[in-house]
Description:
This protein has helices at about 5, 10-20, 30-40, 45-55, 65-80; strands spanning about 25, 65. By secondary structure, the protein is mainly alpha-helical. The protein is globular.
Amino acid sequence: MDKVQEMSRDGLLRIFERFDKDGDGSIDEGEFGEILDALGWDSPPEVRSLEFAVIDDNADGEVEFQEFAEWWLDRNELSG
């Protein structure tokens, strides 16, 4: 099992909070990319932008932890 598959919800929260620089409970697309780097997710910028758009349901340019965690865990459950 690799780092991606081992990541728990609590672990994701710790990483999310580290990159939520203003502490408002949400991240922007740049912070999203930094989190993916920290999690070891190797993908081109175009793919990251598309994934961010999928998570950002209301298209406000921000993603909350719940949305991110559900996406991450669902995505990695399917690939694991």
